[in-house]
Design goal:
The complex is a heterodimer. Chain A is α/β, with parallel strands linked by helices. Chain A folds into two domains: 4-239, 3-Layer(aba) Sandwich (Aminopeptidase); 243-315, OB fold (Dihydrolipoamide Acetyltransferase, E2P), CATH 2.40.50. Chain A has six helices and 17 strands. In chain A, α1 crosses α6 (202-219). The model of chain A has no long low-confidence stretch (mean pLDDT 93). Chain B is an alpha/beta fold. Chain B contains six helices and 17 strands. In chain B, the strands form two sheets. In chain B, strands 1, 2, 3, 4, 5, 6, 7, 8, 9, 10, 12, 15 and 17 form a 13-stranded mixed β-sheet that branches. A four-stranded antiparallel β-sheet of chain B has the order 14-13-11-16, with no helix packed on it. Chain B starts with a strand and ends with a strand. Classes of the chains: A alpha/beta, B alpha/beta. The A-B interface holds A 13-18, 21, 88-89, 92-96, 100, 107-110, 113, 173-174, 176-177, 249, 252-255, 277, 303-309 and B 9-13, 86-87, 90-92, 97, 104-110, 132-134, 168-170, 172-173, 239, 244-247, 270-271, 295-301. The complex binds zinc ion.
Chain lengths: 318, 309
């Protein structure tokens, strides 16, 4: 049975000038028994990595259609208007964070109506992956993120996605209205994938994540083709509590010049980067690691303020 | 009057951003008024500036009651006002989504913490704020339903309505919520427009704050009598949304009394001027909120009609 490919507008609202604000889904259906995986991206318009990840998944399915079982739904651009102008928020006059508008409301604002439609379309899937990326000035390892409330159930399921790190968010108000937490609350498993690493080519980063997605698809019975071996459970570091993360910030404003530390183990006292002042020609601050461990977030070359996040270190287990 | 720098955000490219406060009187920290938290809250800034000027005169005339302190913070986001951005630009963050703040957190969380460490010391807190959608409100006081609210006290502002609102998940990081939880009686005042000065609404808001300060025994000053306020909730409001997209031509404005079936606005095709939709009120009442437009996306809430009161 051939794999069918169908692009559907799952929801739309008219804009003032001859345009639809539409959310599109591309469905790859094998016609064979199997589950359903949803891959979403582009909730935040300033995060582009999801485009390439969605493309690579679609590309592989189309090159090896005989390996597909069940259905894969891809929603690459949940915030199309934001993506078009590289704006994180939803433009359309209101500048709201789409990932604070779930589960939406069928009687609400245009954004709430679209969010509700996205939820309805995804509910009942075996798994939903919401692909994010770090913002402009940050590098991030390939991480799977989830809420504390869902961690016991989801950590074992996240391992076969083969991430560099699993990060459990502490219970924090704002995440309560994200796509993934709204889906989890409604009984559909959903995980956030995060990947963006400035020093590597985007196609390499995407390939790493996509390899993990196919490994997961194989485990879910959606893919019969070759995939990488899932690492042993203990091989993937898990950050479960606030105490396990060392959040490094700078104290001075200036221009931050990073050392290349992402993905490496640093020792306490190692230099992470320097804050320089071009006007006075002086070094304002040397930012060093307050603890030993794996650097999983790293600020890129950019202007900083006191409090700007420089790095996140997963502290070495004692 | 004591002018103080409450908090400083050091900057590399430009001048440091200073958050200023103006303190009147001595003794118990009775009431604090906060203006703009977003770079476009012009009206909120303006009301605070007028209030500082007014309290300066009151203080000269001995009108601040003994043992009472009242403080005004006109803006916490002067740097964004100077360059025309709504949010705290270096992080593209809304300060009013970062409370109670964190002294060791991001820059925005540090600003929120810097503010909150002072704000929480006061018995009464008044925030002049704006809605996420551009538009006009009938002047009202908002109180978050946290279980610690006191809407009766909100009636002392003498504005027509006190709106008690159930917090949503995303409201839990707002100032009003954090304030209420830390023991301050917190009120948000909405009036008129945001991006431009609305003299009538500014005057009304200013009078409302003065009235509250009078009845709470913080200042003594002549003032006009206020309205008898009604306490309302979300259930008293009916939304009128646009079924089509286009240019909005309003014929009714905030504060208007409307009868069921009356025309409120026309949605026009922006290219040929034809009428795509006539928005009518489904119920008799007062127009509580009116979106400004002029561009309207399909399904956008355009009016809120207050019914049943
Ligand atoms: Zn994101």
């Amino acid at each position: 049975m051939p794999v069918t490919k169908e692009i559907t507008k799952i929801a739309s609202a008219s804009l003032p000038f001859e345009e639809q604000w539409a959310i599109r889904r591309c469905r790859y259906a094998s016609g064979l028994a199997g589950g359903r995986l949803c891959i979403a991206a582009g909730t935040h318009g300033d995060e582009m990595m999801g485009q390439l990840i969605c493309f690579q998944v679609a590309d592989r399915i189309q090159r090896e259609p005989e390996s597909l079982r069940g259905t894969v739904d891809i929603y690459p651009m949940l915030n199309p208007l934001g993506l078009d102008i590289m704006e994180r928020m939803v433009p359309a006059g209101i500048r709201l964070d789409m990932n604070l508008a779930f589960p939406g409301n069928p009687q609400g604002t245009p954004l709430e109506i679209l969010c509700h439609a996205v939820m309805q379309d995804m509910l009942g899937a075996d798994l939903v992956l919401d692909v994010h990326a770090s913002t402009h000035y940050k590098s991030e390892l390939y991480e799977v993120r989830m809420n504390e409330a869902d961690a016991d159930r989801l950590i074992p399921k996240a391992r076969t996605l083969c991430p560099d790190l699993i990060w459990v968010y502490p219970e924090y108000a704002a995440y309560g209205s994200s796509l993934t937490s709204a889906l989890c609350a409604a009984g559909t498993d959903a995980l956030i994938l995060e990947a963006d690493e400035r020093r590597r080519k985007p196609q390499e980063i995407a390939a790493g994540v996509v390899s993990g997605i196919f490994c997961k698809m194989r485990e879910l019975g959606l893919w019969t083709g070759e995939t990488q071996q899932a690492p042993a459970p203990e091989a993937i570091p898990v950050v479960r509590t606030k105490a396990e993360v060392c959040r490094v910030t700078c104290c001075n404003p200036g221009v931050y010049v990073p050392e290349d530390r992402i993905g490496t183990e640093v020792r306490k006292g190692d230099l992470l980067g320097t804050v320089v002042d071009a006007c006075e020609g002086v070094v304002r601050e040397r930012v060093t690691a307050p603890a030993s461990g794996l650097v999983f977030s790293q600020r890129s070359y950019s202007a900083v303020y006191p409090g700007t996040l420089i790095a996140r270190i997963r502290k070495e287990p004692v | 009057m004591k002018k103080e720098v409450l908090y400083t955000v050091p900057s590399y490219f430009r001048d440091d951003m200073k958050i200023l406060s103006y303190r009147f009187g001595k003794g118990e920290k009775s009431c604090i008024i906060l203006g703009a938290l977003r770079g476009d809250e012009v009206q909120q800034l303006y009301v605070c500036a007028r209030l500082v000027s007014f309290l300066r005169d009151v203080e000269k005339e001995g009108g601040i009651l003994p043992g009472r302190t009242v403080t005004v913070i006109p803006t916490a986001i002067g740097a964004s006002m100077n360059v025309g951005t709504r949010l705290w630009a270096p992080e593209n963050m809304d300060i009013n989504r970062c409370f109670p703040g964190d002294a060791a957190g991001s820059t925005t969380e540090r600003i929120a913490d810097g503010l909150f460490s002072t704000l929480k010391l006061y018995r009464y807190g008044i925030q002049l704020t704006s809605f996420y959608q551009p538009g006009s409100f009938v002047p009202h006081v908002r109180v978050m339903d946290t279980g610690r609210q006191n809407p009766e006290l909100g009636c002392e502002f003498g504005l027509p309505y006190v709106y008690v609102r159930k917090p949503r998940i995303t409201d839990k990081t707002t100032l009003n919520y954090a304030w209420q939880l830390s023991g301050t009686q917190a009120y948000s005042l909405y009036a008129g427009k945001t991006h431009e000065i609305d003299e009538t609404a500014a005057e009304q808001t200013l009078r409302a704050i003065i009235r509250f300060l009078n009845t709470r025994g913080i200042i003594r000053s002549e003032n006009s009598p206020g309205h008898t306020a009604s306490v309302i909730t979300e259930g008293d409001l009916t939304q009128v949304s646009a079924g089509a997209a286009g240019l909005l031509r309003r014929v009714k404005f905030a504060g208007a009394h409307v009868r069921r079936g009356e025309q409120l606005a026309f949605l026009l095709n922006p290219s040929d001027g034809s009428v795509k939709e006539v928005l009518k009120t489904p119920a008799t009442g007062v127009l509580f909120f009116v979106q400004e437009g002029p561009f309207i996306t399909q399904y956008s809430p355009v009016f809120q009609v207050l019914t049943g009161k």
